[in-house]
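Lecture 7 notes: from sequence to structure.

We start with a single chain of 155 residues. Read the sequence below before looking at the structure.
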Amino acid sequence: MKGNSYAPDETIIKLSRTKLLTENILWSTLMIVCLYSAYFNLYGLRYLALLLFFLFLYGVYQNVKKAKKEPKIQLRLSNKGLILKNGSFINWSEIKKMEVIVKPNYSSSIQQEYLVVNTNKDKTEFYINELNISSLRLEYLIKIYRKRFDKKQNN
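Now the structure, written as tokens:
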């Protein structure tokens, strides 16, 4: 990463379409396997295959519903502060501490990463695994924007 001057004035963070698309492709493939198994009654597991088919169909439905329901822009980082997905603005001067934390997920090999924002008023957590930015890049951008804000305040 090159340095301060190469970070944009504003970074828009959205839901990761790649993750949603990958999940939908995987679930659709599994649905086809289930239909094949149910049609040809492989291993005598027709009802189990149908049950799994509807379970995977529900997963695809939830993913599509989430993609339509959630606002595309989840977070905006800028020299002035943060703009959350609900439109509220948090100035850098109001933020006491901002960090990325990792919570262990014992049922999966994928860890759950959260952006924790402590302000003068409250504490907010953002689930960042589903966003189109890595936690490392997010931490880097936070440092840059915070330094830019502090530099502007001192001048």
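The two ends are 26 Å apart (CA to CA). Keep this in mind for problem set 3.
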